[in-house]
Amino acid sequence: MDNIYLACTHTHTGPEVNLNRKILPEKQEAYFPFFCSRLVDAARFALQDLKPAKMGWGVGNAPGIAFVRRFRMKDGSCRTNPGVGNPDIDHPLGNADEEASLLILKREGAKEILLVHFGNHADMIGGKLYTPDWPGYLVNILDTVLEDKVNTMFLLGAQGDLNHRNFYNPLLTYKGVENAKCAARMVAAAVLRIYDRAKPSDSNCLRYAHTYVQVGKNL
Question: Across-strand partners of 60?
Fold first, then answer.
């Protein structure tokens, strides 16, 4: 294989894999080798399941789910998560990216693979139990609605400055299991709207590019 793409999701309700943390170190040490072995298994299964494929892609829109959480305050400072309704907020630093993108790999004699991309923190459910949060519900919805002819993989978009909390209207904040399901349905709807109209590509290969950006400590 010429290139391997590693994608990390983000959740507040998953196992700990940072061995430098002191929280439940014995459980971390037990989980880490198990986690690494599953990464190897995933790569082996993927290689064994290779099929010729054609690609299609499209971009939809899922508004009102992700909200900017980084703000310029009235005193000129910048704050992340300053509190809902904080009167010292001057304006948000940027706008939420509400695009939901889809790449379809139409494989010969095998299930299609959907690569779904959307940016928002996977932290709607909270608590101390393991949960896939709204991305897990999203994958289940798409696989079910499309009658198990697809396998969906979710790729989390940039979400360091976004989350599910509307700092101007707490009634529009997504929190809890039912709201996580609601957000998943809204993203799934955006994906389904473009699924049958995804633009086919004549390319027979995938290319990639990267750029290194150095960010100052005070930004």
Answer: 100
Closest listed residue to residue 105, CA positions, set 40, 156, 44, 152: 152
- Residues 158-190: pLDDT tens digits? 888 998 888 888 777 788 899 999 999 999 999
- On whether the CB atoms of residues 77 and 89 are closer than 8 A, the answer is no
Packed helices 133-145 and 177-195: angle between N→C axes, nearest 10 degrees: 40
The stretches of the chain forming alpha helices (DSSP H) are 25-48, 133-145, 177-195
**Predicted confidence (pLDDT) per residue in 108-150, tens digit:** 999 999 999 999 988 899 888 889 999 999 999 999 999 889 9
C-beta atoms surrounding 182 within 10 Å: 15
**Collapsing DSSP states into helix, strand and coil, what is residue 209?**
coil
Of 73, 45, 72, the C-alpha closest to 151 is 45
pTM: 0.86
